[in-house]
User: Fold this.
Amino acid sequence: MLTKQQIHQFHTFGFIVLKNMLREDELKIVNEEFEKGYAKKDRSELIAGARVQLNWSNLEPHSPFTASLLEDKRFYGIAQQLWGEDVVGTNSQSNHYAGTRSPWHPDVGPNTHGFKFTFYLSSVDAESGALRVIPGSHRPEFSDMIRKVRLRDNDPGPPEDPGLAVNEVPFCSCDSEPGDAVLFNYLTWHGSWHGSKDRRMVSLQYYKNPKTQEEIEATRDTAKHIQEHRKDKLTINRDYPDFWLSNPNNSPVRARFIKWLREWGYIESIPA
Amino acid sequence: MLTEQQITQFHTFGFILLKNILSEEEIQRINTEFDVKLASTLIGKSDSEKTERMSWSSLGPDSPFTSSLLEDSRIVSIVDSLYDEDYYGISCNASSMVGETNWHPDADNLNMHGLKVLCYLQPLNGNNGALRVIPGSHLNPLHDDIKQIEMHEPKHDGLTHIAAVNDDGLGLKIEEVPACACSINPGDLVVFDFRLWHASLGGSNNRRMVSMIFIKNARTLEEKKAVNQSVLKSRRNRAIRAKAAFGKLGSEYHSDWVANPDNNPRRQRWIDWMREKGYFEVYDASVIESKN
Assistant:
């Protein structure tokens, strides 16, 4: 669980790095399940561009342990500390990166609140693909100002002033070792630079249960966007696997997640 | 001059790093003037191993080249771009730095608009004394939120104590605070907003830095109040630094510089404003003694 100071750090800077959140034996299982998912993944669904990314759901039968982490009190409990008792676990995904960089971006638009746990399965630092973040950039005032900075990968300018390359943007590097977790607010600007062609990352994703009118509208818009892109295999938006939706162990936590996902339109239809 | 994009970067992140502004020859001239002045300080005259930051004004006949940087077209054109040519150059100091510097902004009043131009005379990175900054921390809400972050500060210099402190093992060490290190080579400049949180870590003794200070002309009542407060703080800090370096108080502004022998209109405008604001008044020594 987080201390009061860690919670304040997260909300101030929009991220925090937690050391040794997974044991070695757990990491071994996560790696094995990652291998199974990677082997099954259709290579035609490669997300090209700078990232060269393959992405798949961990909510499939091949990765029961990784899927269970979404409901694990170590992570779900932290999510409740950060976003309230009624926080919702919405997904767990694996990512394989072979590209040279991830351009700077926040994950969602304004008023959608939540965060990711990311676990890098090898040691990474600023020059080898670690998550780079702009501290405090989850705040709308700062985020809006960053949008006006010309970024070469996002909105290149003329050749004489093409904008900042990924490695020219002021950043803090979330260096991590296997077992460490990087938590970051979806609104925090992030990117990455260099690294091997076999970078592996597993994420757990949580949303705040929307309360204000703005949050409610943003949550509906996000669900709509996901539904519209569900059939596009070159996005990270996936159908929820029937296996996970069937909740075979009758987990009350998962049952609540599924109920919320259905109510808000994140799940297209009740599986047969 | 800065490009439009560089101006946007400065106002967004609170700082900007500019490469290769001064030449090798110019850095050598600054070092030569630095050597002479450092030798006249208490540390320079002492045979002991004691280390302490030494800092002095470069606005005098001992440091003609360093002094000229405050009005150098390459420097003032940067400030022109950022403050629409409506500002005052008030200081050019040289410092022999030692050790680390705790996290702090130079101005805690967000109505205080000013900047520092830093020129380091050695190559530095995040682990050997380069400036570390928290991008965007010159503005709220980030600026004020950082004050609630408990930090481990075993050493205080009495000038920069703003953060919440927790030295019982739970406070964040300098390197644990999320930051961007301004890796730099001699000839490069770092320009940063007074309000930006910054620190340094792991630096060797006698890290050499020249800093030039520019204050934007205050327009609103709140800005004018902030500037007036900063004048008092500036005089106090300079007096403490002067006493540490030379064992006595003295004016930061040498009479030769204030005389403005070349009748530089820009300098004269700055001098007239500083005189009005009280920069040239000698700080009351008894107040400093009572602080110690």
In short: The first helix of chain B runs from residue 4 to 13. Chain B has one domain: 4-223.
